[in-house]
Design goal:
The structure holds two protein chains of two kinds. Chain A is mainly beta. Chain A has one helix and seven strands. The two termini of chain A are 25 Å apart. Chain B is mainly beta. Chain B has strands at 10-13, 19-22, 26-34, 38-47, 53-62, 66-68. Classes of the chains: A mainly beta, B mainly beta.
Amino acid sequence: MANTAAVCNSFKQELMLGHHNFGTGVTRGSTAADTFKMALYLATATVNASTTAYSTTGEVSGTNYTAGGNNVTNATAPSLSGSTAIWTPSASVTWSNVTLATAFDCALLYNSTQSNKACAVFTFASQTVSAGNFTLTMPTNDASNALLRLA
Amino acid sequence: MSSIDQSKPIVWTNLNGGSNMNDSDLDYKVTWVDCADYTQMIETYRLKGTDTVVRQSVHTLCRKGAEIGAAVAT
């Protein structure tokens, strides 16, 4: 037998599950999963890895779009795929019958339970929508494609 | 513009603040954007024979999410 330095695979998954807290200041009110949301941002906005929380600055606006975006369906808990911790929403996120007349190209995933803290930014081709739907369909929930991966 | 024939297929549009039109009065076009990380399908309805967009929907398939610690393309 030999020992091998590593970040434990179980730890990666447990980070996503909120089991570890190396700091102070976070209070978890219950054992329930947090509520995550997605908001859409204009192509002219500046949303990136430095974004720390949801903001209305640069967010799209228009008919039938509510500031803050839509809830993300979270019926599948984080899991391990090999040595990679993965999580993907369990359903598409859809804005129905919206008019978003100014071009947008970005969605921010954030945690509305924990002070709207930012999680990840996803970009796509700049688009407008008129009296139609905007749908974000989620990737395959595996080690190569999941929406969030901790390898 | 002809009046709506309720016996034929109708499409919700942005005209007059939101109203139905007969599908036969519209031109329909689908375009695709295909990248490594996503694929987008854009459905556009225009008034027949014009460039006036009266309805546009966008469907985005996120093919690959974000990896924590991975380099970000710039």
